[in-house]
Amino acid sequence: MRRDAVYDQRASQAALPVTVHYEDGGTCETLLVLTPAQVELYSLQFLRLIEARDSTREPRR
Question: I need a labelling partner for 39 at 20 to 30 A (CA). Which of 4, 6, 22, 31 fits?
Fold first, then answer.
């Protein structure tokens, strides 16, 4: 979903709006709630995925 994640300082958690896609083609909008440690872990994993993607792309001319 194209909405910003929010951080709730009092609850010490982040909430990210997501769309879940089911195998039958249905979808559901919900929130993915993450602890600060999970946000850090997923941030590192996404950075690795982006680097892997970039390393497979052809150089621009």
Answer: 22
Stated pTM of the model:
0.70
Position of tokens 């195998």?
23
Angle at 42 between CA 31 and CA 51, to 5 degrees: 130
DSSP string, 20-52: EE-TTS-EEEEEEEE-HHHHHHHHHHHHHHHHH
Q: How far is CA 41 from CA 27, 32, 47, 51, 60, in A?
A: 26, 14, 10, 16, 31
Bridge-based pairing state of the strands 27-34 and 13-21: antiparallel
Residue written as tokens 């910003």? Answer: 4
Nearest Cα to Cα of residue 15 among 59, 28, 29:
29
Q: Give the pLDDT of residue 3.
A: 83
